[in-house]
Design goal:
This protein is α/β, with parallel strands linked by helices. It has 2 domains: about 5-135, 3-Layer(aba) Sandwich (Rossmann fold), CATH 3.40.50.1390; about 160-200. The chain is about 50% helix and about 10% strand. It has helices at about 20-25, 45-55, 75-85, 110-145, 160-170, 175-180, 185-200, and strands at about 5-10, 35-40, 60-65, 90-95. The protein has a 4-stranded parallel β-sheet, sandwiched between helices. Helix 3 links the parallel strand 3 (about 60-65) and strand 4. Helix 3 runs antiparallel to helix 4 and helix 6 crosses helix 7 (about 185-200). It is elongated and about 85 Å long. The protein starts with a strand and ends with a helix.
Length: about 200
């Protein structure tokens, strides 16, 4: 029997890893052997996971909370499973799915069942991720249709803006002079002037 490890991944620094750590704490994993990544799904660099891979040796045991901790999609999950179980020669226990425990069923039938469950679960994990993204996109589109604004709110313009804007439109001053009087950069003045004109046309 080799060393025992745990791996935790959350997809952003805003998410909390406590749920995964609590699940791992029940399996006597040394604290120094628990690796945690807080990486977005966009870049997926996972420095802690790469460090864990370098440390793993044949017959070591790795605990993870769920199968989607290994990858963002079906192919990545399959690839990492093969690297860990075939190339590294370690055992994996997926706590959310007892059938995915490579210590059990080392015979042909056990391996077949484990591989089959892995394929189904990794497909489900990817499908769920895509469904969540689609729902988010639909929700954002619906909110925008209702007039909800996203992002940081714009700074309000100074009371002088509308007066300076009108003088600029009347040709009394240049855009640069109008921006200086409003205490903003020329690019900001032109941007706010365009937004003001669009709101008037609307």
């Amino acid at each position: 029997m080799g060393s025992v490890y745990g791996y935790v991944r959350v997809s952003s620094h805003d998410q909390n890893e406590d749920r995964q750590l609590i699940a791992l704490s029940e399996h006597n994993i040394p604290p120094d052997n628990i690796y945690i990544d807080k990486q977005s799904g966009k870049d997926f660099m996972r420095p802690a996971y790469k460090c864990l891979l370098r440390r793993l040796r044949k017959d070591d045991l790795l605990y993870i909370k769920s199968i989607d901790r290994l990858g963002r999609n079906y192919q990545e999950i399959q690839d990492q499973w093969r690297i860990l179980t075939k190339s590294k020669g370690i055992d994996i226990v997926v706590l959310d799915m007892p059938l995915l425990d490579t210590r059990q069923g080392k015979d042909l039938m056990g391996t077949f069942i484990s591989d089959l469950v892995l394929q189904v679960l990794s497909f489900v994990a990817e499908n769920e991720r895509l469904t969540i993204r689609q729902r988010q996109a639909e929700g954002i589109a619906a909110a925008k249709a209702r007039g909800v604004r996203f992002g940081r709110p714009e700074n309000p313009v100074s009371p002088d803006f509308y007066r300076c804007y009108q003088r600029w439109k009347d040709g009394e001053i240049t855009g640069t002079e109008a921006a200086q009087e409003c205490r903003m950069s020329p690019s900001t003045f032109y941007y706010k002037a365009k937004n003001y004109e669009n709101s008037k046309n609307f």
